[in-house]
Design a protein that fits this description.
alpha/beta, seven-stranded mixed sheet, five-stranded parallel sheet
Amino acid sequence: MKSPGQWCAAILIAVLSQASHAQILIGQTAGITGAVSAGVKETTDGARLFLDSINAKGGLGGQKIELVSLDDKFDPKLAAENARKLIEEQNVLAMFLTRGTPHTEAIIPLLDKHGVPLVGPSTGAMVLHQPVQKHIFNVRATYQREAEKAVTHLVSMGITRIGIVYADDSFGSDGVVGAQKGLATAKLQAVALEKFNRSKPDFGPIAPKVFQSNAQAVVLVASGQAVVDGVKAFRAAGSNAQFVTLSNNASGGFIKSLGDNARGVIVTQVFPYERSISNPLVKQALELAKAKGINELSPAMIEGFAAAKVLVEGLQRAGAKPTREKLQAALEGIRKLDIGGLEVTYGPNDHTGLDFADLSIIGTDGKFKR
């Protein structure tokens, strides 16, 4: 028979055990190391700004939000295995901020099998928008929208000789569709259309073709280090083209990787300018960042911050004891949610999120300029 002291100790252990599990587990698989690590870090840091602010106030209903992040090294197969572990073994309530188009596609069967919502995948692939993927709630605009706007912008500058270089995956193909829409509107055709192996990029055979095409501008639909290597190879081959890449590369780390080739590169954007403190979303993010000793934001941080706001809204609407099913219903019930000057609306047949696209140019100081 246990003594009163033993009973008290047992009760205390039970209480502490319950408290340790009084948390909302959210899963993330992304390339924490590898070709897109800089962007992944900044996007996740931006999300943590908002999640940490919620946790500092006691969380939601006394439960703190814990983001469990696994490194998939930007490998779709590893992304799928990470998602399986998070969903089946760690029993996360939702997935969040996955990175990459084929990577996100690889986890869709798991989302559908277990009824797990995915909020804010860091990819603008059209395949995640149309047809509607039941368990994916997009926040950012589509790559096609970005690429189309980029080409329209180039044409408005009087540029007519435009080339396209892209990774041979679903992301690359998606961006090409948007770029070609822009060209078709301007009644133009790409002067160069070249693809490369995403897993083992080799720009040696492509660079001379781009140079010989006399392209005035080149749209590079690729990720992180591949874009860095591509720009370097094209410059070495003699090309003086203007380079444009998409918002998946909108991070401070990406600029640093470009080195001397950074100046003048155009990067499309899907969120408000990160220095525009007149924007409520940016202002709130900057205030929380400064409280942590962070004085500057990057576009990637704004993306993560916005996605976290949508996730928390869904969790709040899901109630005191959220389940995957309740969160799914709560997210689909969001109508005209103001996340800071931008409205997000979902429904059973619409998981689009935002339709915001803009452009920025990397300046001489290594910062994004609007």
